[in-house]
Each structure stands twice: as structure tokens, then as C-alpha cells.
Amino acid sequence: MYRLTVVMNIILSFTMLFSGIASQTDLLIHPDKYNAKQLEITDLPEPAVQFETESYVQLSEVRMHYMVYGRDKPPLILVHGNGGSVNSLREAASYLANDFTVYVTESRCHGDSSDPGEITYHLMAKDLKEFIEALGLEKPIVMGHSDGAINAVTLAADYPDVPGAVIACGANSHPKTLKSYFLLGVAARDLFRRDKLNTLMLTLPDFTPEYLSQITCPAYVVSGQFDILWISDTVYIAENISHSDMAILRGENHSSYISQNGKKAYVLVRDWLKTKPELN
After folding, report:
1. Cα gap 229→2, rounded to integer Å
2. Tell me: the pLDDT tens digits for 52-89?
3. Which CATH superfamily is 2-279 part of?
């Protein structure tokens, strides 16, 4: 049985490798099919603010830490990735505060938010829903990176009436759609130090077409050309959300256009919203 499992894993790895090569080739030949684009960061406004306020809100299970950038503008929530914190998207928040009141949340079991013991994407989506209700935010745009993107998608599927729109940057639909080198790295770390955040990435999510079809708000599904997930998975997520747009960002990796570059994050949101007058 062990040998059979090893053989099956090797076959799966080679299959995904060839699939990835095929996707990259297809992206070069048919860029319009993937809405392949490069983010231009010239002639941008200066960062609006560092941050306005830092606070906590008590939810049903979690005392959530958050920061607010800007004021008196439409609400946008930024959600960090696995192992991140409110600091992960600080630069993006500063630029986005030109157009939004930006709420940067800190997920359960991360940073200064409390750790109730259990963590799943459904639980983090519930926390986001409660955060939105507690602060009285009306149809916010929810923008997440990596695990934060999975949280945004889960929020929109579990609570369709809560977000006004979601922007998912680097969400995967299942652990098997992450590239092998990344999964092996997470598994290796977990061998030396067991961590529920590693377990989360190794076992979840599991977005079926039926589950994704529950999303009714506008969605923007984005990944980098050289992301840790396969391009085909970004296509899969976008194709199964009825009101979605998709983009593959040329030359970008998993984090280079959002947590590592606030200017690109700003351009990503600004340019998409130009095509969505109903959200302005």
C-alpha cells in the first residue's frame, strides 16, 4: 500500500508539472483567455495615511485585532495570509486609503487576535461576518491574500448577502492545486514543529463547483503568473463563480503584487472597479 501511494504521488506530481508547463505555454499563446495583464504603477497618488486607529472588537469566539486606514470613504477589508498579521498588508492599506476606509483585520490564531483553539476557513469567514456586523459596515469590498483570499471566497459563499464584492488574490480551491515544492515545504516544517496553521494549508479548503456557485456578489479572482498555485485553479475558481472576473498577472508571484507592493495592490483594485460602475 505504501509503495502504491508513493507511485501515485509521483504520477500526480508529474501530471501537475506537465499541466503547469502547458498552462504557461497557453498563457503566452492566448493571453486574452486568461486576461493576462501587467500592473502599471506610474502616476499614482501618494500613500494617504499610515493608519488612523488601532483597536480590538469582541466577537462570539474571538477578540479581533484590527487597524483602520483613512475615513469617510466606502469600506474595504484587507485580510492577510497564513501566518501573517495586520502588518502584512500595511503598504497596500496606505495606498487604498486614498479611495476607501480600509479595515485591516487580524485572523483568529494570528498576531494579537485571540486564539480560541480551532481554526478553519469557515470559522474565519464567520469571524469576518461578525466583524462586519459589529462595526456596522455596509456591503464592504473584502480583499484577501492567500489564506485571506480563501477567507474572502468562503465568506461570500457562506454569507452571500454580507460582502459587496470580493477580490481573491492567490486563492487555491484545494491543497492538491498548490505546487508540489510549496506543499513539501509546509509538510517538512510541520514534521519539526506541529502547527495548526500548517495543517490548515495541508488539508483545506475544498471548493466544489456547487459551493462556489453560492457566491452572488461580484468577484475578482487573481493570481500571479508564477504563483504557488496552478493557473488552472484560478480558472476553475473564476469559472464556477457566476459574477466573476479573472486576471493572471504577468511576471508576478504569490505575494509580489499585494503584500510586497502596495502600489500594485492599489492599481489592481482601481482598474477592476473602473469596470464595475455598480460598485462605485
Report:
1. 27
2. 899 999 999 999 999 999 999 999 999 999 999 999 99
3. Alpha/Beta hydrolase fold, catalytic domain (3.40.50.1820)
Q: Are 96 and 119 in contact (CB under 8 A)?
A: no
- The domains of the chain are located at 2-279
CA dihedral 58, 56, 268, 32 (to 10 degrees): -30
Whose CA is closest to 247, among 177, 173, 150, 169? 169
> How does 90-120 read in b/e, with b if 16+ C-beta sit within 10 Å?
bbbbbbbbbbbbbbbbbbbbbbebbeeeebe
Instruction: Identify whether the C-beta of residue 239 lies closer than 8 Å to the C-beta of residue 71.
Output: no
Cα separation of 250 and 35, whole Å?
Answer: 10
User: Which triple of cell numbers denotes residue 260?
Assistant: 510586497
pLDDT in tens, 219-242: 999 999 999 999 999 999 999 999
**How far, in Å, CA of 76 to CA of 93, rounded?**
9
Cell of 153: 471566497
Q: For the chain, first and last CA: distance in Å? A: 57
pLDDT at 23: 76
Which residues are within 8 A (CB) of 160 and not within 5 positions of it... i.e. 6 or more apart? 214, 215, 216, 217
Phi and psi at residue 64, to the nearest 5°: -95, 130
Using DSSP's 3-state secondary structure scheme, residue 115 falls into coil
